[in-house]
Amino acid sequence: MTEALLELHGHSRRVGLVEWHPTTNNILFSAGYDYKVLIWNLDIGEPVKMIDCHTDVILCMSFNTDGSLLTTTCKDKKLRVIEPRSGRVLQEAN
């Protein structure tokens, strides 16, 4: 592959993490140095949701098996359990 199939523009700073949704086709999550997680629908090539609950760089993100929960760790030393559909933080711990 020598040419990009799709370019995604939405973060204001560089992207550090990318994760596919575990059960839904063409849904991609990206975490940027702008402290945001963007949820992308690759069928339309645009973000469909922004999760803006972090106060520093997101270091890691991972889903549970059915994709109903997203867990992030952040440079602010907090672990967050997030419901991706609503963007709501369900749990937060140091």
UniProtKB/TrEMBL annotation:
Signal sequence region: none
Classification via SMART domains: WD40
Domain of life assignment: Eukaryota
Residue stretches of each WD repeat: 8-50, 51-92
One Pfam family here: WD40
InterPro entries: Coronin, WD40/YVTN_repeat-like_dom_sf, WD40_repeat_CS, WD40_repeat_dom_sf, WD40_rpt
Keyword annotations of the record: Repeat, WD repeat
Family: Belongs to the WD repeat coronin family.
PANTHER family: CORONIN, CORONIN-2B
Protein name as annotated: Coronin
Protein's gene: Coro2b
